[in-house]
Every structure is written in C-alpha cells, then in structure tokens.
Amino acid sequence: MAICVTGGSSGIGRAIAERFAVPGADVFVNYHADEEAAVAAAEAIEARDASAHLVKADVGSLEGIRAIVEAVSARTDRLDQLVHAAGMAVSGRLIDIDAATLDRAVAVNGTSFAHLVREALPLLGEGSSVFFVTSAGSTRALANYGALGAPKALAEHMARYLATELAPRGIRVNCISPGPLDTTARRTMFPDTWEERLAAQTAANPWGRALTFEDVAGVVELMAHQDFQMTVGQVITIDGGLTL
What we know:
single chain; alpha/beta; globular
C-alpha cells in the first residue's frame, strides 16, 4: 500500500499519514518548510513499521507538484491513496490582501488540487482514492477567511468534475470537511481569538466533546475502503453535528 499526503508533516495531514502507516506501507509525506515537524512525522510513521518518505516541495507551483510526483514515482508505480491536505493560511479581508498574496493563496488552496491529480494520474488506478481536505469556510463567509475559504470552494467543485472524469477508471475523488481543530491554519486565521473560538465551538458541539485529528483520519480510512466505491464527488463533514 502506498499513500501520498501533501501537508503531511502536521495536523490533519500527519494524522492521516500515521493512520495509513501499516507495516510494509510506503507513506510519502510532503511538506514545505518545517523540517523538524517533517522528521517527527517520519519517525512516528517508521515506529509503525511503515516506510516514511519525506518530500519537501511547494504545492503552490507546478514545479513543486511535479517534484512530489517524481519522488513518489521513483519508489512506486502506484498510489492507493492521494490526500491533499496542504494549505496556505492568510488572514484578512479580500479587499485588503495584496494581489500577489491572494493569487498564491488561490494556487495553494484551490487550483493545486487539479494540478496534483493530473500530474499523479499515471500513479492512480482502479481502486485508488483521492481526498481533498476542505473546511466550512468554503460554504460560509467567515470574517477574514476569504483567502482560504474561497479557493477551497473552487477545489471542492473541481473535485466534483474530477470525480466524474475519473470514475470510469475506477478512481474515486471526495472531499472531507473537518470541524474545529487546533491547527496551525486556525491559529493563523484567528490569531487573537482562536483559543476562545475553539472552546466555544467545543462547548456547543452536540456530541459533547472536541473533534480530534484521529476522528478525521478514521473517516478517511473508512472512505478509502472499496465498500464506499459508489461514494464519489462528495463533501463529508466531520464535526459531531456542530454545523447542524
């Protein structure tokens, strides 16, 4: 079994990478800058008797995406799972964010998904699953969240098109939308209020507890199973009923 997770050195991405780190598996962990976090993720994966492969590359550029695919191709000719969890957090109003920063946010949080799937297509085959990690900000206009939420909405719709295009090949594409978690992106998007917001959202959760990274990773693991092969192009919300 082989899986590639972009943004896999921390948070949701790391939890998913570790969940699939079964003995004998090849786990490709893409990261952008944090060497220490990447090494820690690799050690956690290796501790589960899986093989960790770190790939430092920028998913916001086509060159970076191709570098990821080349690194994977050098070790395997098939990916069973491709998970796009990388993101770029930019806090602020769209009318205040400079053009270059906004364009890069759209590339990292939005169009990179289609580029990644296209470039990785030779590694994907019947039974492979592709996941995009999105957020509630893709459907609601949250304050100072536009540079992350709007591009994720774009990627969600790309996932629907990709799902119909790849279904004839037996490749499934879906999105997962986790609820509130203590992520680096959340701390960046809400620098002054993230802790207060997280506590309030946890208290309001009908399930009576906070969401965990393991909750999210568990859903991805289940969705990757062939019992779910007729579930395609969907956005699966994982939040304990908070958004209900």
